[in-house]
Amino acid sequence: MQPYELSLVRAADAIRARTLSPVELVDSVLDRVEKVDPQLEAYVTVTAERARRAAREAEQDVAAGRPRGPLHGIPMALKDLIDVAGEATTASSRVRADHRAESDSTVAARLAAAGAVLVGKTHTHEFAYGLTTPQTANAWNRDRVAGGSSGGSAVAVAAGAATFALGTDTGGSIRVPSALNGVVGFKPTYGLVPRHGVTSLSWSLDHVGPITRTVEDAALVLAALAGHDPRDPASVAASGPVYRPGGATELTGLRIGVPRTYYFDHVAPEVAAAVRRATAELQSLGARLVEVEIPMTGYIQATQWGLMVPEATAYHERTLRTVPELYQADVRVLLEAGALMPAGDYLRAQRSRTLMRQAWGRLLEEVDVIAAPTVPATAVKAGDETITWPDGTVEGVSDAYVRLSAPANITGVPSLSVPVGHDTAGLPIGMQLLGRPFGEPVLLRVGHAYEQTRPARRPAAV
Amino acid sequence: MSTAMSAAGLTPQEAALGADRAGFPMPAGRHAAVAATANHIHSVVAVLRELDFGDTPPAAAYRAGEEKTDAAV
Question: Which CATH architecture has domain A3-252?
Answer without folding.
Answer: Alpha-Beta Complex (3.90)
